Structure formats: C-alpha cells, structure tokens
Amino acid sequence: MSEITRAAITTGPGSYEEAIKLYDIDLGTLPEDKILIEMLIASVNPSDTLYISGIYPTQNPKIDFTAVSDSSKHTVYGNIIGFEGVGRVLQVGANAKQAMNDKVEVGDWVIPLDFGSYGSWSSKLFLNPLGVVVVKNKDGLTPGGISSTKVNALTAYRMLLDIVKLEKGDYVIQNGANSGVGQYLIQFARLFGYRTINVIRDRANYDETVSFLKGLGADIVVKDSSLETDALIEQFSHLDAPIKLAINCIGGIASQKLASHLNYGGTMSTYGAITSDPVSLPAPSFMFKNIKLRGYWLNEFFVENPVSEIMETWNHIFDLMRTGEIQPQVTEFIDVFTKSDGKTQVVSLEEFKRKTIQAVNSKVKVGLRFTEI
User: Fold this and answer.
1) Cα 144–chain centre separation
2) Does residue 237 lie in a domain region?
3) Where does the Enoyl reductase (ER) domain lie (predicted)?
C-alpha cells in the first residue's frame, strides 16, 4: 500500500515564507530494506534555519518527490526539512531488521542520525534502519524529553570531553548559557566535577533566568554587559582554579569578551554563530596569553567514532535522564495535529505552513508535535 506523508520541503534557499513549502507526498510502498516511521516530535534548531536559508555547510541531496492533491500529481525536486526528532516504527521491511545499535521492531522509538533526503518535519518517513538509533528502554523517558539529545545534549557532553583536558574544579565560561546546549553543559559539568561561569543577556526576567540556571547547577551567572567591568575582572582574578575553556555560540565582540577571561594557554571553541560575525581576537591574546581558537561540529564525532562509542555517550545521557540527574532542556511544543473522535490527524497544509513559520521565528526553543503523546 502506498504511504502518504504531509511534509515541509525546501527546493532551494530563500526567506522562510518562500523556501518552506508544504505538500502531501506519495512515498510509494515500503522498500524491503527500509522502515516506516511516524514522527512524534521534530526538534527545531538553528541548523534548520541555516539550512532553509542556504548557508548550512552541508546540503542533503535533492530528490524527486511525488506531490499529490485531490485532482493531480506533480514532481517536487528538493529535501524534507528537519535534522532532529523522535519517531515511532510503524512497519519494518523484510530486510530491515537491524538498526545502528539494536534490532528494530514495530513500536520502537527511533532517533534518526541519517535522514538522507528526508527530514523530521514530516508526518511519516521511509528510513534506512542502519541510520537510526533505537530506544528500547523507554522507562523514565519521553519523546519530548529526548527530542534534543542528538544535537544539543550530545554537543554539550562531548565539548566538555573532546576539546581540552579539564581537571575537577576547573572553570568553563560560556555565552548563550540559557540556550539548549548551555542548559545541558551546566548539568554535565556539574556531574563531571567542573565549574561553570555562565554569561547571559541583561533581560527583563534576568533574576528568574539566574535562578533557573543556578537550579541546574550553574556556579556563577553574569550579564554580558558586565564582562569588561573592573569588578568582574577582579572577581575572576581570585578564582581558585583556572578558566581553561570558553564555549562560544554568538561570535563577534561577544566572543572577544568571553575569551579575554581565559587563563594563559586557554582555548575558546565556537559551536554556533548567532550573530554570524567573525570570531577573532587581538594579537596580544595570542602572543602573550597563548590563547587558542577552534571550532566544534558534532558531525565529526559521529563520523570519526565507532557506533559503540557513540552509543556509550547516548546511553549515559539517557541513564542520567532516567534518574533525574539531567533535566531535558526547556522546550515549547507546537502541535501540528488535531484530534476528533479519538483519532489524530495532521493539520491542513496551510496550517502546517503557518506553524512551521511560527517555529522558525520563535525566540525560544520549540518542537513540532505530530501526535498526542
């Protein structure tokens, strides 16, 4: 039987209104080497907006999709949007029994690592099972809670381990500390024995945000506007351990201010580019403080390591979530389904488009929710 999915597709870069197109797509019949999944949650990340705008460093191969309506069919050449999400297996092809980490069965939750030309902003997908992580033990987990583990949680976890050698008690300073990565980094650092200095914007709810971050385990929270003040410089000069690592997701002058607080030989790693401004430092920072600049892209962790090591990290994160030692990042979910007579269905194409635009323009972390869970 042919499967129909409602999906957000981009055929080329442009503004959100221009580039995000909604179609009902005929997937055809399930190939023997694929699995059919229904999406439960599609996480919306800055990488999605960069992809839509055409400035993400990698572009998935475009393919021909068959778009259907009541009266016609036509071909759409593009990709389904969405790098991250959680799905549930509806059907398993005859030769598709093995996922990355375990056997795959109907009813399993899966987190796709490789969507191919598909993406998470779609009600249903055909995927290669060898490109998905199966979540067999669902105890203590929810689809919403694990929907950002592939991007934000793993990025925070690995940055603390992969960039420089940190000793217990060392300080890590980060900007964008209330972001998803920032929330996870605070919690992982606390568990690993490191301490964090967390920089956030001066905002109307500043005190509330400080309390929230402190509740996650933040040691110090400061305003970005205070980074160059004599009082803060004096405070940091009396810390009982070095600031070895700076984590930057903003760029421009904000990254310079962040790196200025590193101790001799410290490293600043950039994993995001909120402003897209260049990341650079004055020459004396290199000459007299031996400061190092580098980047971090989680994709390299997936490419360079065996599945066993990838799953060791992922399983540790899941275990910490089950025990409550790690809280999922705060996320608001936008429902792209309706419910009638006990049945759920995806909203109309027009409403789906409106909600995807709402998602990419959101100032807070959001996810698209495809069904009641």
Assistant:
1) 13
2) yes
3) 18-347
> Which is nearest to 273 in space by CA: 303, 297, 300?
297
314 part of a folded domain:
no
Instruction: Confirm whether 77 is a catalytic residue.
Output: no
Structurally, the chain folds into a number of domains equal to 2
The 10s digit of each residue's pLDDT in 208-267 is 999 999 999 999 999 999 999 999 999 999 999 999 999 999 999 999 999 999 999 999
Distance from CA of residue 279 to its chain's centroid? 22
At residue 172, what are phi and psi to the nearest 5 degrees?
-120, 130
Q: What is the pLDDT of residues 124-154, one digit of tens each?
A: 999 999 999 999 999 999 999 999 999 999 9
E strands present in the chain: 3-10, 21-28, 35-44, 63-68, 73-80, 84-92, 109-112, 124-127, 132-135, 171-175, 195-200, 220-223, 243-248, 267-270, 292-295, 332-335, 337-340, 343-346, 366-369
Residue 288 pLDDT more than 90?
no
Judge whether 56 lies within some domain: yes
How far apart are alpha carbons 164 and 123 in whole angstroms? 41
CATH number of the domain to which 351 belongs: 3.90.180.10
Residues 242 and 134 in one domain: no
* Arithmetic mean of pLDDT over the chain: 95
| Annotated catalytic residue within 16, 51, 56, 264 | 56
